[in-house]
Each structure stands twice: as C-alpha cells, then as structure tokens.
Amino acid sequence: NVDLMAASIACKKLASGAKVVLVDVKYGEASLIRDYSKALKLANLLKYIFDECEVESVIVVTDTCQTFGEGVGNAIEVVDALDVLKGKHCFLRDMSVFFATEMILKAKPNLKREDVEDMVKMALDNGTAYESFMKLIKAQGGNDKAVRENKIFKPYKTINFVSDKEGYVGNINSLLLGELVRRMCQETHDSNLGVAIRVKIGDYIKKGDVIVTYYYKTDEELEKYKNAISKCIGVTDYMVKPVDVVRKVIR
User: Fold this and answer.
1) What is the arithmetic mean of pLDDT over 187-204?
2) CA–CA separation, 174 vs 187, rounded Å?
3) C-alpha neighbours within 13 Å on the C-beta side of residue 232
4) Higher-confidence residue: 240 or 174?
5) What is the rounded distance in angstroms from the CA atom of residue 172 to the CA atom of residue 170?
C-alpha cells in the first residue's frame, strides 16, 4: 500500500526533526515495489508530504537491477560502506557522492554542484568521513575499536566463481542473491556469511574472470548453494550498455 508506505517513511523522518531529507525509493525484482510507476507514485507522494510539512527534500527513484555495493550479507555490506569511507573508488562511492551532493545542495542551494562534489570526495579521500563515522559509533556506545581493527567481517572459507565464457554481463539476479543470503543467515544466525558481486551490468569479462565470491562456513553449505550462486550472473555474447540505476530525481 503506497499510502501507508509514504506515511511510515515520512513519519520517521519528521519525528527525527530533520530539516533536509533524502529518500531513496527502490523498485524492481529485489524491492518491495516491483513496478516503476508505483515507485514514482510513492516518490511524488513523499515529496508532497515533505513540502506540506515545510521540510526540504530530495526523492530519488532507483532500480534494483543491480546492487550499489559488491556485498550481499549482514557484515560484508558494512565492510562495503567502511571501504567507501576509507576512500575506495567504486560504484557505491559514486552513488554515495551523488546522494551526499544532493543533500548538501538542498541545505545550501547557493553552492555550485561541482564544488560540493569536490568537497564530498575530499572528505572521503582524506579520512574525514571515516573519522566522523567512528565518532558516531563511539557516541552511541558502539565498539569503534572493533571497526578500526577490521573485526566486523571474518569469513571462514572463500571460493570464487568464474565466468565460463567471454562476453558482457547482461543481468544480475539481485533478488535470488538476496534470498540465498537470507536463507544462509537464517539457518546459521552467522553474519560472516554472504556473497560479493564482482561485476556490474555492461562489464566486459573474459573466460575465467571472477564474477562472484562466496563466503561460507561448511562444505555442506557450499554444496547446497553453489549451483544457485553460479547462475545469478548472466553473460551474453553481445554488447550490453551499463545501467543507469537512477531513474528519477524529484527535488
């Protein structure tokens, strides 16, 4: 129910006292909302609510045809975010810079987009963003030392799945990957399990290139999930254009 979703999302933001809000409305196979038109309806409704409440907002509609980060799993997704905060250049960083820039421009509309983007990138590259996050963890009673010492994600066993042919990445089954990892973690209650998607749609790959890394604990788990994981990435013989996951920005 789009109306109930809008109310739930908006109430949380408004209750926090936020003056500037950005909401990423996701749609597609790996989302609660499968249809773009329904996602757009939710986005417009959220924008209407925030405008009525005199809260500056940016609503972004994004496609879940591929994940922003590489990791799928509780701990590995945290590591993805930490890597970006440490200055890693990747698709997740690009999306983070985009979102942060949109937020800052809403709060400071007199600034130039290029200048803001440079400021955000500098904060990531010089460690300012990472140190700010460490302060947030510590202020809330979290274990920032465990984060600094890379104790968040400790995989037991690792195996790489490679492409059996040369070509272009045509599709990534994000829904299946998410469902597989959910089952793994549900069965074991272990956050050190998961997968890392090493490619994006449109990437050109050679036979033998790594496409997915699987982090598992037992050989039984490997046997149970390996066939499904290996089928989550589709490789085609023809050229595929990279996907622009940002479908709409409502400012």
Assistant:
1) 92
2) 20
3) 33
4) 240
5) 7
